[in-house]
Structure formats: C-alpha cells, structure tokens
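thread: overnight batch results

M.L. [08:02]
morning all. the overnight job finished for the chain we discussed friday. pasting input first so we're all looking at the same thing
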Amino acid sequence: MVDSYLYSAVRTPFGRFGGALAGVRPDDLAATAVSALLRTTPSLDPAAIGDVVWGNANGAGEDNRNVGRMAVLLAGLPTSVPATTVNRLCGSSLDAAIIGSRAVETGDADIVLTGGVESMTRAPWVLPKPSRGFPAGDLTAVSTTLGWRLVNDRMPKEWTVSLGEANELLGEKFGIPRSRQDEFAARSHRLADEAWNSGFYDDLVVPVETGGRDGGVLGRDEGIRPGTSVEKLAALKPSFRADGQITAGNASPLSDGASAVLLGSGEAAARIGRDPLARIAGRGVSALDPQLFGFAPVEAANRALRAAGITWADVSAVELNEAFAVQSLACVDAWGIDPDLVNAKGGAIALGHPLGASGGRLLGTLTARLRESGGRWGVAAICIGVGQALAVVLENVSGRTS
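M.L. [08:03]
and the structure it wrote out:
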C-alpha cells in the first residue's frame, strides 16, 4: 500500500438555477473542469491517467450514459483513458475522490482524475413507462432536479419526506432556532464575498463560456449576495411549513457546476510535474435513518479522524457542505469544535450546491485553506440524501513527495 495525494483541484463557478449556466450542457461543464485541471499540470501526459472517476447525482438527461466518459472524450483526452460515473447523490464527487484514492493506494492506478458535475437547471422531467401500451389514465411528468421521485410504495412514509421537511424535523430534534440558522446563512454570504474579493478563489475557479448571444462568461459564483443580513433573512417566509424555520435564505440553492481533482501516488510527482498539495489521510462513511440525513456527517467525520489517527483537537480547517443551515449547525454542535474553523471562505448556502460537484469543491477549498494558513489537518464532510454522509481527512504536505 502506498499513500495517495491530491495534486490539483479546480472547479467552475457555480450558477444559479436558471441562471448564467442554464444554457450549458452538463457534459460540457464536466469537460470544462477536466480541461482546466489538466492546464494546471502542463507536464502531465493525459495518456498517463490510469482512470477517471466522476460523480453525478441525477443522470436522467444530458448527463446520462456515463457522463464521466463523455467528459473525457469532449475534453479531448486520448480515447485510451477510461472513465466511470458514480452516484452517491450529494456526495458523488467526494465518493469519486475516495474511490480514486483507494485505486492509487492499492496500486491499481498511479494517477486518477476525479470530479463531478450537476446541472440542476437542465435536469429533465421524466414520465414513468406504462406497463401496457395506451394506458387509459393520466401520466404525471416528474422533475428530476432534486429529491425523491417515483417512490416505491413499500418505503415507510417517514423516510420519504422532502429534504426540507427532514431538516425541519432535525431543527426540532436539536432545538436549533431560526435566528441561529439565519445568522449562519448571513455569515456564509459574507465570508464567500470576502474570499472572492481577496483573491482566494482566483486559482480555484475557472470561467465558463455561457454560450449566450452576447458571448457571456461566468467567472464568479452566481448565488453570493453581499448585502445579505440577518434582518433580511428573517423577513423571508418559511418554505416547507407555514410555521417552519427553513427558508430559501438559510438553505443551499439549486445550482449548476462542475469540479475536478487530480490524485496520484508520491512517485507520480515526476510525471505530473509538481509536488503534491495534500495527503488523503482518512476516509469515513456513515448512514442513519433517511429523514435524519443532515446529521450523518457527524459520524462520518469521526470515523475519518480515527482512520487518520488524529482527533478534532488536531484539526485547523473544516469544509462542511451547507445543505441547510440547521444541519450544519447540528453537526458543528455535535463535534464541539470552534465554529470559526468551519467554512471560513463561505459555504454552499452562498456558493451553491450542484449536487454531483460539491464534494470536489470541498476538497479544493480545504486544500487551499490549509496551504494559506499552514495548518496540518483538515476535514471535508458532506451530508447525503436518504441518510448517508462521507468525510475525508487531508494532511497538508505541500512540497513533500513521500
């Protein structure tokens, strides 16, 4: 067994639902991220990539039929470079990186390109195929953008509540008031805006040509609202219950985007043409009741820390995907860590959450934060619909090759 390292990470800007990236196909978004990642390692011969592992949650439209392979072909890589697409919903691209790191550690591949993509805007409506031709009744088109669809009647009803209702239940369970949720959301926008203005994201995010008639280009995450305040968020109406706490302002928005991460062994540094940035030091996966999915990162991160042989006291940076403010707060409270360690450059509430791409974003941001601060250990964690979560521990080893 050898160690696996993260060598480079990039992503596209994340666009709003129906926004600037609405005209860009998900396979083209994925190819954009792949091409941009390879531009960061010009010495690397793409033919040396042993495998591509790509994440995608919906896979019902233009991202069908192994969008990872489509991205490789559209990006102009040699046809000899293989690719697979994995689906663990919101955790898909983090799962891709976990799978890729294992391939490196076992020697199945020396260099693995991972990442993920989602166009929630372009996710299609689907019709169930009737069991017999010419059905007498109506058929309903189902949106594949988010959440349960075509639910099996055998599933217990408490498992199949909407994502929003699940997090209303989580807020009740842990007594997290709306005021805390709105404060957390306002912080996300403020920190994201500050990070962009300071240049933090300049090397992490690549512009995307939007294909508009005006030849437009999206160069910055589209969902950030610099003027967001707790007072403005408090004025928003609840989205899932008349007397609820979750609003469009304290939950992550529907988004479009792609991310890419290059992994390799220590010996691969010579072929990649640069030193590694971080070591994949620990991995964790967990699951619980589907309606409590937002709390699943607690155990996933704890398992990843145990695998790395460290504790929360050693951690200097945390990237936790902000699916909802309430579930993020529940996790941070359970870990008992300093909230300032979490999402110091903004999170998904501001930046966006294109399901299949968010895990790659977490890894890229976490690596950059560790390099900026000089901290040694960081944790990336993400909750996943239907009651799962993933986490990865990174060790900052910039400049090391063994």
